[in-house]
Amino acid sequence: LEIHNNPNVGPQTFVNDGAILAEGNGNVTLYGEVVTNRGSITARTGGRIVHTDTNSSTQSPDVTLTNEPGGTITIGSGATYQLSDTGTNSRAVRLINQGSLTVDGEITTAGNSPPVTNEGLLNGSGVVATTLDNTGTLAPGRSPGTLRIDDELNRGPTSEIVLDVDGSVSGTDY
């Protein structure tokens, strides 16, 4: 499934108030400068969601997906969410989480992508394969579990890290 917007009618925007699901070997590609999620975006085992921009226009400085409060993004085990700029102008593709973001699979970046910004709740037992700017709540695991960040973790003054500790074995007890 590919979701496109008409670049000839101004900024490309897409608002999801429903549900977007990729599973099995399915792919969902979101094309648009501004994507707002108020519903749910889910990638299950084998599924892949790509947010990209192929428009060569340089009128917008970057491409943004905002997961608003109440919105959920879930990347299941074996699934991928990729932020990718495949356009000719190397615009940044940005993910801003203000709702709930669960990563049991992997978030990846390609091209000119800035850090993932978490202002809401980020949890799960997967991999964030890019820099993470956290001013929200980071809750690794699923009581318990391990959330791996493959690059820098930048914590702001309002950031919280919530850990469940119930033993001495990493990934099992904490």
Describe the structure.
The chain is an all-beta fold. It contains no helices and 21 strands. It has strands at 2-3, 13-16, 19-22, 27-31, 34-37, 40-43, 48-53, 62-67, 72-75, 80-85, 92-97, 100-103, 106-110, 116-118, 121-124, 127-128, 132-134, 137-140, 148-149, 153-155, 160-161. The protein has a 7-stranded parallel sheet, with no helix packed on it. A 7-stranded parallel sheet has the order 2-5-8-11-14-17-20, with no helix packed on it. The termini are far apart. Mean pLDDT is 80; it is low at 6-10 and 56-60.
* Helical segment count: 0
* SSE string: EEEEEEEEEEEEEEEEEEEEE
The general outline is globular
What's the total count of β strands?
21
Low-confidence stretches: 6-10, 56-60
Strand order within the widest beta sheet: 1-4-7-10-13-16-19
Beta-strand percent range: over 45%
Average pLDDT for all residues: 80
Cα-based radius of gyration, to the nearest Å: 16 Å
Helix content: under 10%
Q: What is the terminal separation in angstroms?
A: 38 Å
* Overall SS class: mainly beta
Main β-sheet, in a few words?
Answer: 7 strands, parallel
Summarize the SSE layout with pairings:
Blueprint: E1 2-3, E2 13-16, E3 19-22, E4 27-31, E5 34-37, E6 40-43, E7 48-53, E8 62-67, E9 72-75, E10 80-85, E11 92-97, E12 100-103, E13 106-110, E14 116-118, E15 121-124, E16 127-128, E17 132-134, E18 137-140, E19 148-149, E20 153-155, E21 160-161
Parallel strand pairs: 1-4, 2-5, 3-6, 4-7, 5-8, 6-9, 7-10, 8-11, 9-12, 10-13, 11-14, 12-15, 13-16, 14-17, 15-18, 16-19, 17-20, 18-21
